Automatic annotation (TrEMBL):
This is Glyoxalase/fosfomycin resistance/dioxygenase domain-containing protein. CDD domains: VOC. Residues 16-141 form the Glyoxalase/fosfomycin resistance/dioxygenase domain. It holds the Pfam family Glyoxalase. It comes from the Bacteria. InterPro entries: Glyas_Bleomycin-R_OHBP_Dase, Glyas_Fos-R_dOase_dom.
Length: 159
């Protein structure tokens, strides 16, 4: 499995970077694997096993970089993939309760027909695909989605 890299721009100060680190730590429920807050350009790196970048599913490194040469993207460069639509909805509700800003609200984007049994019967519980796009503290767009065909491994979601 390959590892994809996503770079999000952060304003060039340590206070903003600290807020971004705290936000992504809560959002992904993992701590950063690397952090540099001593010498510019400041950065932090997070790793997840359930990301979609450019249509490719797999491991993802999310780099937060305080560098003015990194462009501010207008679309999500990364979709965090959760196991089912219930987890997507729960994540949305937690973020909404924390007054997160959204680029797009929770939406059902696809419904799969109910499985009739056999090898595909596990699909019945996850017959709906939902997504939303949240804005991180620097205004970068981060998508959250579920894929009932290829579900990621189990993860613990923050409450």
């Amino acid at each position: 499995m390959t590892t994809e890299k996503v770079i999000y721009r952060v304003r060039e100060d340590t206070t903003t970077m600290e807020k971004m680190i705290a936000w992504y730590t809560f959002f992904l429920n993992v701590k950063p694997t690397k952090v540099n807050l001593t010498d510019p350009p400041y950065y932090a790196v997070f790793k997840t096993d359930s990301g979609v970048v450019g249509g490719l599913l797999g491991r993802t490194k999310i780099w937060l970089v305080a560098d003015p040469t990194v462009p501010q993207l207008t679309k999500p460069a990364f979709h965090w993939e959760l196991r089912n639509s219930d987890e997507v909805k729960a994540k949305y509700e937690v973020l909404k309760a924390r007054q997160a800003r959204f680029a797009s609200e929770l939406t059902v984007i696809s419904r799969l027909p109910a499985a009739s049994g056999g090898a595909r019967s596990t699909r019945q519980a996850a017959a709906e695909v939902q997504e939303f796009v949240v804005l991180d503290p620097s205004g970068n767009k981060v998508g959250v989605i579920n894929n009932p065909i290829y579900t990621p491994k189990s993860i613990d979601l923050p409450k």
